[in-house]
């Protein structure tokens, strides 16, 4: 497979910002892929396979995040993550 | 080093390692490990983390099996967090580079993340940090294993830090090891303040959020004189506080040496200075400082100590201990003064509906609603009165009808005791607290029926100025020098004089030295103060003449703004008693 580099910009829609539950789901998804995956909030950049890195992004509602995936399965990962930011997160809000 | 400012509620200065109540169920015993133990300690961290992972994995399996996969997912998130290489690295670095014990290092790392989560988004989120706190607890439990030092079983002195102290938390502490208290919320009349005052331990409350800046075991100074808490102080600061502690002990000793001198003004007018207490063992704190009796014995702790209501015997035993310790000095027992929300059984549901506990079912209102509870206490008081000079005082009386109702119940209780054939003393003075403006306004009518007044300034101020002083947003509006308060006190004193009944002032105002000349000038001849303040209150009285006090009062009554009254009184106190200031005593 060809190495691929993907970049996407998403908006945090979770009403409590990027919080433990959604973070843990992102990490879970990311760890299913082999590619490098980074998320940035302005200058703060973190490894998306690491819970604490994502926590440190301090992403509040309406924040724009830059997603950077780099590796064989980058585009598939990106598809799944973008879907999560679009609507997938909702099922993690129910128990809020 | 980090300095936090709050409200000083119990004077004195102390320092020691922090114990964070609420998030810590046990104390972290050591902050540091020796350099050659580092490898062993890192290995210990490793196996503790592994054990927590196993524990969580087991929970995940159980939850998925029994409740469904979506519940198991919660634990999956926890597992991610504990198994994270980054977490392990961060803790390990602290152990290796700073020689922190694994417990202390874990605590620090988790605290940082807790704070991060708490500060993300709105207040609502603070709750969500509970996941991280839970993990922290699990890891500490593994690390400490059998060596866990339970709070009830402390063996070394600590400074207790908490968001707010609840009675059950404080009950679980081995109090001889508590050097100081500091809480995020609370005001001068909060539970922590009362407890710290009773134990004579330095305390600062209303500090605002600070617990996430600190880890168990950190060095902390509690400055109960200036209302400061210093986290992780540098050596210079520590040294300064060692000196202050020394100086205070010597001043206290100097005042204590004069304890036997009668409390009277320069021109020979006797002013009785009594003590406010909460626990029987505090009688000694009063008598050893030369108190003329116990002007306010709060009985709430009898109800808060355990989860069951105190029996008549429990009441009786406590009262007898107080009577015995007081050695024929008068003791004024105040009946239950709690909100329904704090009573172990029964009326809780009624309290929950109320949005405003200060105006709700509390204090005497609760006693009148729950007669078995009220009568139990009254029976014990009348029985204990056989052994000494005991008096009863009803709190929060607002109307004559309430007073008469309470007196009627006293009649019933006396009949019961007669029937039972036990020893009791039916002829004891029964008075009331004047702490509701309505009662102050009708003082003349009340004076016809009561044996004495005791002005409870804390509540009187709260209800008159409509300020809850435990609420930091408005606590600055709470001021005992407000002209309205002075006028109400004056009304009560005049009514008492007319009907020839005694009137005492209890509450914080009577421990506030600058208010003493004012109170004496208003005609108060009995003051009940916190035990610690007694020597200083007596000292002020001995520097005073009645004429001077009346002059000060007359002038104070012409000032129309609390702030100006306050600074005037402070200035006068300085003129009367300059030597109290030389020693840098808290005022």
Brief sketch in words of this structure:
With 96 residues, chain A is α+β, with helices and mostly antiparallel strands.
Summary keywords:
heterodimer; A: 96 residues; alpha+beta; Histidine-containing Protein, Chain: A; 4-stranded antiparallel β-sheet; 3 helices; 4 strands; globular; B: 587 residues; alpha/beta; Glucose Oxidase, domain 1; Enzyme I, Chain A, domain 2; TIM Barrel; 3 domains; 8-stranded mixed β-sheet; 8-stranded parallel β-barrel; 24 helices; disordered C terminus
Task: Report on the architecture of this protein.
The complex is a heterodimer of chains A (96) and B (587). Chain A is 31% helix and 27% strand. With 96 residues, chain A is α+β, with helices and mostly antiparallel strands. Chain A has one domain (4-92): HPr-like (Histidine-containing Protein, Chain: A). Chain A has a four-stranded antiparallel sheet with strand order 1-4-2-3. In chain A, a hairpin with a 2-residue loop joins strand 2 (36-41) and strand 3. In chain B, helix 4 runs antiparallel to helix 5. In chain B, 49% of the residues lie in helices and 14% in strands. Chain B has three domains: 2-16 and 155-233, Glucose Oxidase, domain 1 (3-Layer(bba) Sandwich); 26-150, Enzyme I, Chain A, domain 2; 258-582, TIM Barrel, CATH 3.20.20.60. In chain B, strand 14 (390-394), helix 15 and strand 15 (430-434) form a beta-alpha-beta unit. The two termini of chain B are 27 Å apart. Chain B is an alpha/beta fold and 587 residues long. Classes of the chains: A alpha+beta (96), B alpha/beta (587). The interface between A and B is medium-sized, with 19 and 20 residues.
């Amino acid at each position: 497979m060809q190495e691929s580099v993907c970049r996407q910009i998403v908006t945090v829609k979770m009403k409590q910002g990027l919080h433990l539950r959604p973070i843990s789901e992102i990490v879970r998804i990311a760890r299913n892929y082999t590619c490098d995956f980074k998320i940035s909030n302005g200058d703060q950049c973190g490894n998306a396979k690491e819970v604490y890195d994502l926590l440190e992004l301090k992403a509040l509602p309406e924040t724009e995040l830059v997603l950077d995936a780099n590796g064989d399965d980058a585009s598939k990962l990106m598809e799944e993550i973008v879907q999560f930011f679009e609507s997938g997160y909702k099922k993690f809000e129910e128990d809020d | 080093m980090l300095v936090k400012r709050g409200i000083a509620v119990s004077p004195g200065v102390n320092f020691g390692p922090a114990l964070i109540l609420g998030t810590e169920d046990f104390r972290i015993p050591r902050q540091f490990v020796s350099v050659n133990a580092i490898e062993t300690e890192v290995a210990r961290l490793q196996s503790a983390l592994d054990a927590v992972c196993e524990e969580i994995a087991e929970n995940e399996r159980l939850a998925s099996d029994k409740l469904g996969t979506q519940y198991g997912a919660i634990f999956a998130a926890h597992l991610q967090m504990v198994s994270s290489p980054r977490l392990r690295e961060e803790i390990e670095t602290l152990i290796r580079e700073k020689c922190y014990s694994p417990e202390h290092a874990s605590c620090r790392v988790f605290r940082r993340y807790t704070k991060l989560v708490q500060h993300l988004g709105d207040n609502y989120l603070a709750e969500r940090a509970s996941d991280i706190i839970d993990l922290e607890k699990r890891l500490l439990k593994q690390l400490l294993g059998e060596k866990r030092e339970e709070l009830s079983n402390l063996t070394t002195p600590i400074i207790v830090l908490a968001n707010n102290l609840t009675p059950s938390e404080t009950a679980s502490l081995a109090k001889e090891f508590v050097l100081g208290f500091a809480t995020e919320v609370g005001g001068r009349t909060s539970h922590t303040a009362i407890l710290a005052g009773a134990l004579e331990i330095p305390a600062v409350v209303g500090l605002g959020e600070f617990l996430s800046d600190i880890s168990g075991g950190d060095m902390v100074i509690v400055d109960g004189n200036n209302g400061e808490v210093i986290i992780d102080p540098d050596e210079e600061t520590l040294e300064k506080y060692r000196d202050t502690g020394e100086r205070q002990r010597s001043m206290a000793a100097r005042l204590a040496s004069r304890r036997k001198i009668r409390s009277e003004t320069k021109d020979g007018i006797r002013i009785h200075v009594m003590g406010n207490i909460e626990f029987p063992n505090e009688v000694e704190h009063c008598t050893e400082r030369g108190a003329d009796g116990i002007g306010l014995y709060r009985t709430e702790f009898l109800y808060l100590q355990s989860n069951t209501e105190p029996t008549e015997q429990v009441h009786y035993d406590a009262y007898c201990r107080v009577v015995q310790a007081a050695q024929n000095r008068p003791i004024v027992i105040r009946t239950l003064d709690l909100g329904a929300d704090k009573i172990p059984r029964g009326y809780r549901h009624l309290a929950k509906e109320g949005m405003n506990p200060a105006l709700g079912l509390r204090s005497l209102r609760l006693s009148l609603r729950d007669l078995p509870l009220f009568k139990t206490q009254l029976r014990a008081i009348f029985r204990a009165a056989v052994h000494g000079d005991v008096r009863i005082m009803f709190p929060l009386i607002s109307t004559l009808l309430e007073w008469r109702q309470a007196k009627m119940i006293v009649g019933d209780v006396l009949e019961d005791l007669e029937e039972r054939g036990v020893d009791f003393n039916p002829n004891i003075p029964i008075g009331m607290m004047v702490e509701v403006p309505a009662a102050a306004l009708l003082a003349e009518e009340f004076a016809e029926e009561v044996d004495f007044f005791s002005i409870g300034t804390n509540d009187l101020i709260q209800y008159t100025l409509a300020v809850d002083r435990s609420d930091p947003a408005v606590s600055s509006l709470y001021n005992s020098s407000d002209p309205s308060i002075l006028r109400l006190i004056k009304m009560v004193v005049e009514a008492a004089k007319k009907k020839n009944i005694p009137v005492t002032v209890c509450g914080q105002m009577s421990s506030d030295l600058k208010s003493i000349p004012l109170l004496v000038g208003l005609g108060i001849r009995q003051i009940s103060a916190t035990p610690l303040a007694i020597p200083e209150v007596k000292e002020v009285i001995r520097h005073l003449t009645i004429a001077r006090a009346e002059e000060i009062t007359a002038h104070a009554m012409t000032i129309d703004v609390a702030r100006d009254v306050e600074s005037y009184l402070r200035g006068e106190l300085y003129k009367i008693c300059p030597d109290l200031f030389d020693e840098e005593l808290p005022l």
